[in-house]
Amino acid sequence: MLQNWRRELxxxxxxxxxxxxxxxxxxxxxxxxxxxxxxxFCWQLLQIHLLNAWQRSPKSAHPPFAVGIWGSIIELAEAxxxxxxxxxxxxxRILAGFHESTNALPDATVILDEKGRMEWWNDVARQVLGLxxxxxxxxxxxxxxxxxxxxxxxxxxDYVRPLQIxxxxxxxxxxxxxxxxxxxxxxxxxxxxxxxxxxxETVRRDFVANVSHEMRTPLTVIHGYxxxxxxxxxxxxxxxxxxxxxxxxxxxxxxxxxxxxLLMLSRLETQEQAVGHEQxxxxxxxxxVREEACNLSGGKHRIHLKTEADLRLYGIESELESAxxxxxxxxxxxxxxxxxxxxxxYANGSKACFSIKDDGIGIEPEHIPRLTERFYRVDVGRxxxxxxxxxxxxIVKHVLTRHGSVLEIESEPGRGSLFSCTFPEYRVxxxxxxxxxxAVH
Length: 441
Prior knowledge:
By secondary structure, this protein is of the alpha+beta class. The protein has helices at 2-26, 29-56, 69-104, 123-128, 133-136, 141-144, 148-156, 195-230, 235-238, 242-268, 282-297, 317-333, 380-385, 392-402; strands spanning 108-112, 118-121, 163-166, 174-182, 186-193, 278-280, 302-308, 311-315, 340-348, 351-358, 407-412, 416-423, 428-430, 438-440. It folds into four domains: 2-95, no CATH class; 105-193, 2-Layer Sandwich (Beta-Lactamase), CATH 3.30.450.20; 197-268, Helix Hairpins; 278-440, Heat Shock Protein 90 (2-Layer Sandwich), CATH 3.30.565.10.
């Protein structure tokens, strides 16, 4: 760099000396110097013009003359150009590797820009979604998947849980769609064919429903006969079989409850969302739930209820009653005598919330994620003694899912638990907003 500046000075100084001598010779040194330096300035402008043209079109334009400082400028420009070429080649290799790896994936993969338009997709996406390179590039993904549920899922922006939708080309194919945000507003969409899993799940659900349905009739008959025997009043004929008959009645009664819960679960699983638009008076429903919980408790617990009487839900009353009852009965069963259970129905902004808090035995943190699984029990012996079927929280989960909500659980061993759920705005209604009040029991 310094050497090039010295060369530039070796050009400028002779121009100045020659101009001065020529000026004194003709007795106009200033005019001569100004003329020579004007030519020098024009030369620099020409070099700048050549540099600009060369930077814009390096293959067709000629670089500036490598004279003086311009030699250093051209050298630096060439070095940067070479580094850019190396980076481009490296990025090209990375991009090619990315395309190769995503093409090897068994799932359809689509890259979406910040406006939901498709920038790139792999071969599986071309087959599953019917994409064409020339026709569909930069088209919105909702034009390719014209599903209202998918569109709402995309607009909501909550991609924690995957979405199951039918394939746009074939309704018999079920897709599990996941969206992963990355970069500045971009998203990676993955669609997996879960038709086989869906079919297996349908077979399993139908099997459980059919077996439960077939078991209900013989269980009812057996339980009825046992009940008739136990209540016949002829203790002399029963004798030592009195205890056996009583145990058999208890077990058939428990099996009937399990069958009833299995049938309800099978029915709940048939639809993702509750189709009913009945206006449910939740405050009145919870009052009934509280009375049943008090009967279960037998006066051994303090059961409180606080509700906003005008706050209601659009949904299916029988399902909501089942969910709230299961939560209330669990709170009573797992709270020692003398403890308290508090139920609260209230508004949270434009949403509605239900919570139930107890000061019972609590739950270890490792058990909480699995509580809504079928037949999962933290304490098997205690659960059976309390009369539970192991299906209550699974029913709660499905009912809440069908009503656009999820179950949230907070618990600490020895200090009780808090079960809560929030219902979306579109499920909430008020009968008399101007007369909002609390009902406390």
